[in-house]
Amino acid sequence: MTGSPPPAPASLPGDDLLDRIRALRDSPAATDTGLGGELGAVADPLLLHEAGRLLEGVAAARLTRAPDTRVGTLRVAVAATFTADDAVPLLRAALLAGGIDAELHLCPYDQLGIQLTDPASALAEFAPEVTLCLLDAGALLPRDWDPSALDGVRTAVRDRVDAHTAAAAGFAARTGCAVLLHTVPLPRPDRRSVISFRGGAALGRIWREANIALLAAGETHDGVYTVDLEALLADVPGPVRDERQYRFGRMAWTPAAQLAYAREAAAFCRAVAGLGRKVLVLDLDNTLWGGVLGDDGPAGIELGTVYPGDCYTDLQRRALALRRQGVLLAVCSKNERALVEETLAGHPDMVLRPDDFVAVVADWQRKDLHVAALAEELSLGLDAFVFADDSPFECGMVAGSLPQVDVVGLDGDPACHSTRLLEPARFAQLGVTATDAERTALYRGRRERHRLSTTHETAEEYLRALGIHVTVGPADAYTLPRLVQLEQRTNQFNMTGRAHGEALTRRLAGDPGHLVLAVEVTDRFGGEGVVGGVWLDRGPDRWTVRNLVLSCRVLARGVERAVLQYVADTARAAGAAVLETRFCPTARNAPAATLYPSAGFTRAEGPAGDDETVHHEARLDRLPALTPDWITLVAKEAPAHV
Question: How far apart are CA 528 and CA 467, in angstroms?
Answer without folding.
Answer: 13
